[in-house]
User: Fold these one by one.
Assistant:
Number 1:
Amino acid sequence: MDWGTELWDQYDIIEKHTQSGLELVEKYVKFVKERTEIEQNYAKQLRNLSKKYNPKRSGKDEPECRLSSYQSFVDILNEMNDYAGQRELIAENMMMNICIDLTKYLQELKQERKTYLLDAKKAQQSLESTYKQLDSSKKRFEREWREAERAAQYAEKTDQDINATKADVEKAKQQAHMRAHVAEECKNDYAAQLQKYNKEKNQFYFSDMPLIFNKLQDLDERRVRKVAQGYILFSDTEKHVMPIIGKCLEGITKAGTNVDEKNDSLIVIEQNKSGFERPGDVEFEDYSQVINRASSDSSLGTPKGPMDVLGKNRNKNFWLFSKKSKLSTSTLPPFSTPPAPSPANGPNSPKFGRDPLSYCLKEINKTVKPRISSFRTLRRSPTVTEDFAHLPPEQRRKRLQQKLEDISKELQKEVDQSEALGKMKDVYEKNPQMGDPASLASQINQTSQNIERLRGELNKYETWVAEAGVRGDTLRYKSHTFNNNGAHDLLSPDGAHSDESTPDTSQAIYAEFDDDFEDEELTAPIGKCTAMYSFPGASEGTISMQEGEVLSVVEEDKGDGWTRVRRSNGDEGYIPTSYVTVSINK
């Protein structure tokens, strides 16, 4: 069934229906545009939200950043940022695949519909014109026929009139004959016009208009089909990004499961452990013995000097959360060193004079420092020193070790640069056209000075690290010096020339470990590790490995970037932690 057959007389209905269909497409395009705006605004707000709560670069070094709960929160913010990107992708695809495509197709449909309606209008106007010609010929035939009848009646009347002359009769007959001839021509013309009109009318109603209506029907059906595709795209556009959105949500779930409260507690302990010993019990201070001793030379107990009384105060009232207003200022900090006690049963010191109690109190007021109120006040205004002596022992150890690693890395960089300058100088000496060797003298001298300065700092911090009791292995680097010819020689750490032959300069200079493996009982493995990359193990203390090789972990990374491992044949050594995936036994 088609419109040309069933709706041949419903031109106005068809015109209105097709116009309504085009308006529906426009309405749907506007709907999708507003949806894309909502998605874009949503994505923008999500990005701003993630940016607002994401830590600034300056805050990424805060101690809290190492906590798993904090890292998981950062992971959630990153996943939300990716999620916002997917919402933007939805908006972009909807705009491209639905809005722009439908808008372009809508313009084509409008132009096509306009053409069909113009064709129908032209056919209608042609039929109306033919009808006007038919009506005109019909009226002319009617008029001429009446005139011919009147002329025939007049000729007959004149012929019967006895008073009429023969000439009048002939004239009337000729007039009647002429009128009859004209009427006959008008009749033939009318018949021809009628036949033409009927033919065009049949053409109009049975061919032209049905064809136009069928074309409009095809246009409308294509429009409906295109809109249906737009409806499907509205859903498919979001379905296509659902897997990625699902991964974002899985990432958020994974961030939640990665939170390890026990590990966070250990990190807090590691970051804030002071290394101090807990304060001891408060001792009983018997001031009566001092008074009795002042009044009598005889004493029932062991005589106590003023410094003995002062020494007893060193462990008194070490409060963690007290306020300043409630604290006494007559006690020593917990880490003060007690003075040497007076000899037991020894004689009175001549410093006591006649009033030993007054002298004792005076000495206490002069020598005893005000007690630190709490750990908070200890942190408020520390005197920062180069050896980090202002920090608690455990924190000092970690800071010194970190500083030592930083200096070692900087020293290695300077060593590499000095080696490169030496090679460049050798090339210039062999090929003068490439450059002047003397132009590198200032850079070589500056690099040598930097190496000497860094070696000095390295030795200084190694001494402090040894004092702080740092565990693990310390990286020591061999630095390069240059002779007068520009060739670089290896120096041992103490500055003397090494007897070893000069190694191949094309190989990387590796750090050497101080401790040597001694013949001792093998330590039980604490886990396994799998090599992600191959490692040559060229330097002393290291061990080579191949990609995919499984090794036993003997000692975890102590923060220096190296892990101690063992092969099944008993070979042990250090490997870079970043080259393997480690699994520790629980």
Number 2:
Amino acid sequence: MGTYKCCIFFTRRFALSDATTPGDVRALFTRHSAGAPYMGADELRHYLAASGDAYDCAYADGDGDGDAAERIVDRVLQERSRTPRFGRPALTVDDFHYFLFSEDLNPPICHSKEVHHDMNAPLSHYFIYTGHNSYLTGNQLSSDCSDIPIIKALQIGVRVIELDMWPNSSKDDVDILHGRTLTAPVSLIKCLRSIKEYAFVASPYPVIITLEDHLTSDLQAKVAKMVLEVFGDILYYPESKHLQEFPSPEALKGRVILSTKPPKEYLESKGGTMKDRDIEPQFSKGENEEAAWGREVPDIQDEMKAAEKQHEDDTLYTQRDVEEDDQKKMCQHHPPEYKHLITIKAGKPKGAVVDALKGDPDKVRRLSLSEQELAKVAARHGRNIVSFTHKNLLRIYPKGTRFNSSNYNPFLGWVHGAQMVAFNMQGYGRSLWLMHGFYKANGGCGYVKKPDFMMQTCPDGNVFDPKADLPVKKTLRVKVYMGEGWQSDFKQTYFDTYSPPDFYAKVGIAGVPLDSVMRKTRAVEDSWVPVWEEEFVFPLTVPEIALLRVEVHEYDVSEDDFGGQTALPVSELRPGIRTVPLFDHKGLKFKSVKLLMRFEFI
């Protein structure tokens, strides 16, 4: 019994219910055990084959495929401290439920640790896990700079690290900091050493360091020397001055590469200051919410419409950086040893963004746009953006008014083929949850191959149109059975002082606008083990890049409490009844909290 104090003299008691076995699980057990009260390894093996499970999934970690079912039976009985009654190890219906409700034995995606995409295409064919201002520990204005956020990013598989290089106070060395703010610096050499140490702990595929360069030529030469000394042979740089095609992730395995654009900040006294400072913040409603889960992810169509409406004068179509002559003058001062190390050349050429999107047939490069610039251009020229990303790299970064290190809807970049959708990894909120979920695909290696249709040009010259009304390609049916684990991971009175929690689940899709939706179950009152047994159907027009979103909240009259979340690539969901572990608002996995769900493609 769970006891809650109501007032000074009275207490309330609530029965602590165990995880009840859903009817669908009982029906599965009966079907595959031929009505018998026990399921042996042979019957379990038939169930695994019937559910389409490959024996190389998480539970098949032994030597032979044929032993997977036996290992499952032995492990379940061992963990439940049960000795088989009749000599032959076998599962009861409750044991079978335990197996299905085990994160390790029955995960929601099969390829959780396995790279299975073709990794031999040029870099432009991949979405790449990208950080923004990777050295910041908190907000954009006053937090400390450190190598710790860089290490944490690399440990979760981030492949693009951004460093802002500035002269130190004595002008004889290089610091990393967010310029013209109160952020405390960290030395470049410390960041480089940490990158080398942790670059490949989560993925063997290349790490790209994007350098925001605010240095004099003598300090650039010093950077070149530092980079060569720290990375040595693992630093990749091309022999030719310009690349006509980027190398593949496979060819760059275990390598570090540099990307930078010409410096411009020394000339800011002539005009521009912080990017987007003169731009009225968009979609700020709820941006400063203190709730753990933050505001809802904005719809990308709304973002494009608002950006277009706010900037009717087309100011965002013209770059506001520096005069072309000044940029050329700066570029001429790059020391040759520094320029030679830059593999991915970047910049924002003078003139209209639309013109920059035409690309150059003789060389590839990287173009950077703020989220607002992308929304503005995408409103009218979405297919131009997609076409540009066939060969070139496009990096999208948060607008300058996101002082609290919040993020935008990443699908704004992904649906237009942008490879580097840069995020503040130290922030929190739903947008970052989507980023974490997207890169669970392809073994979590940080590189997700774009769908073929995003890379194709039709005979009539047309490319994928992100705004087109497409037919439904696949339909996903999701059933949420139940959840458990909160009582292990939270204090008894965390959600409600006077009674057990009233949990409800939210389930939906993040993707192209036509596919994006959120629905929710009813709230189950006074239960640490809520049983919902509710089903939802999601028609999908672009399932290849869609994410399944799952959240759990505790209903409260004043403000609902957060109970966990996850996002999973739809393309990698394992059909059938699966265990879905939940994560906290920072993206860290709970020890015990999980849901039992069923996925079916119809």
Number 3:
Amino acid sequence: MASLSCHQKSIIIVLTILVAGANAADIFLTWNVSLDTTLNPISVQQPVITINGRFPGPTINATTNDFVHINVFNDLDEPLLFTWNGIQQRLNSWQDGVSGTNCPIQPGQNWTYKFQTKDQIGSFFYFPSINFQKAGGGFGAIRVNNRAVIAVPFPKPEDEFDLLIGDWYYDSYQMIRSVMDTEVVAYQTIPDIMLMNGKVPFGHELTKNHESFTVTSGKTYRFRISNVGTALSFNFRIQNHKLVLVETEGSYTNQITLDSLDVHVGQSYSVLVTMNQVESDYYIVASPKLINASANSSSLVGVGVLHYSNSIAKLSSPLPSGPDPFDLDFSIDQAKSIRWNLTTGAARPNPQGTFNVNNVTISQTFILESSTSQIRGDPRYSINNVSYRVPDTPLKLADHFDNGSGVYQLDWFPTNSANDEAAYGVSVVTGNHKGWIELVFLNTLGGFMDTWHLDGFGFHVVGIGKGKWGAEARSSYNLIDPVVRSTVQVYPGGWTAVYAFLDNPGMWNLRSQNLKNWFLGQEMYIRVHNDDPNPAKERPPPSNLLLCGKYGNGGDGSQDPVGAPARAPSPWWT
């Protein structure tokens, strides 16, 4: 029987090495990324981005400080990049996988990412970061486990389940991308269905291929839940079962018991669920927020099945009800109740609370307002009335070779007020190295939820509120035990404030996690620079560095991202 080559399947080779006095491992993966027209998750002919033929893609299962090598073969007909949502890429933004740090992998080519899960634990996910491809799949779970020498603050569960939940379009991502220049699609259209691990809701008329988990009575299981969608927050619940929240995006939380949990676009959580009910089958539900979706009829209500191993009963009861999807007070109160566990270790043996914000000195404040705008007739999303335009040359590449000259102008972007008129720009601002920054996010997008993500860091979520933010809001900040995460929601008409310690030199993307917002300009970059050339302070470019744009050879990798608007004639402002 012929064996599969390394270009046909994922290969995981683990070599134990000694790093900084702690055991770490090298994990080698080979990914073939292609467009599959046969999977049809909703029984409609639709191309899906798969990795080694799988949708969702394979789980990356690592431990703190491991080195992950992923050789990505791009079998799509367009450029490709992957980003690692929540992996901080310590001292190494060269591996971040966004348009500002990396040249894309061209069709028919391959490139190897090498990154370390340095000083991290927790639940994360990866996805393709350019060309609106996330709406076509290509995402998968990332687990970063504790080292054996550091205790986990709860008993070992019987098993762990990855649950990637997200909204999905009936149309292909290419089709949606092609009409993004219309206001209806850019501002109003929402996805059509909610998938769980790439599967449609239980009982859906299009297919019987729903997600289910088989469990044993009396045992406790860990569910790692991520919102991998493009637009919609959801409320997650399991019929007749309590959820014990234990972790979010690399931080152990104070353990709180919940009936349901709101999960916003780009966020990840871990909950423990004990199988203490009558042996039967139970609904797993993810219903959208801020949407009138009938729990028993709408395709936008994701439904899976929790199956007790000895159960012979069939599901027949109505779906369990959740909170009112428009009840912002419920959601805000729950968000504020998610606190950092100050006494447990995580990636390091010292307690998480060793790193607190109670007495820090803020060296910078950015007040960032998200909004829609029309620029030259094009519908766009903006930050402080500036809509980001992706330059031909990645910012990090230009920064390395020419200090950004000819590609971006540092610090022209208004960080504390909105411009009078909307305009395009390449927005790059200085973040003070080893300084504390306060980021205040304002949501003026009407009735839509927004979520923000900062690559390279975890930030302390110190405040969430309704209405306008003002300096007096600081008196309401939680400076005792704010949870640390990398993605945070901002409620309609409201604000969210976070603190981040900028100790990780690099070029770091700050963006909306809502895919249309990001694709149409709601992003910027924070340049955290350390003048020390010591590679222990920031790593040099990798030996396999791709060149493109002004540094490319004959246009290798230098074309626009597919479907992106025409570039601005000025490199930083028009």
